[in-house]
Specification:
Pfam families: DUF968. By secondary structure, the protein is mainly alpha-helical. The chain is built from six helices and two strands; from the N terminus they run H-H-E-E-H-H-H-H.
């Protein structure tokens, strides 16, 4: 009996169509060149919050409004955040700082609205936690 060829999964295409989290390449382009929120060196990427608030998970990236600038590469801060629960716990402060810089930079919707919502979300989560 001949086997049918396996079809490639189209998870990414399906996910993109059902993901309602706020996405903005324009905001991420603003975040990437900022100084690394951890070491103040040259950042290379926009790191989305992990490990707290159930904002992300396996195969689920947090909204772009919950992104911060980090340096990449071996031994870089990006890798360190993923490996360290202590560093993950500092993300609210780094995010707040990044979002406030975004609010100083942008004046147009929907970016301003998404960033204001993110600040409220962080404050509510931190108030409930602390």
């Amino acid at each position: 009996m001949a086997r049918k060829p396996m079809q490639k999964r189209r998870k990414a295409a399906q996910k993109a169509s059902t993901d309602t989290r706020w996405r903005s390449e324009r905001y991420l382009a603003f975040v990437r060149p900022l100084s690394c929120c951890v070491c103040d060196g040259q950042a290379h990427s926009a790191h989305h919050v992990i490990g707290i608030w159930h904002a992300s998970g396996m195969g689920l990236k947090a909204p772009d409004s919950l992104a911060m600038p980090v340096c990449d590469g071996p031994g870089g801060c990006h890798q360190a955040i993923h490996a360290s629960p202590e560093m993950q716990a500092r993300q609210p402060w780094w995010l707040t700082h990044t979002i406030n810089r975004g609010l100083d930079h942008f004046t147009d919707e929907p970016i301003v609205g998404a960033l204001a919502d993110a600040l409220e979300f962080i404050a509510a989560k931190e108030d409930a936690h602390g």
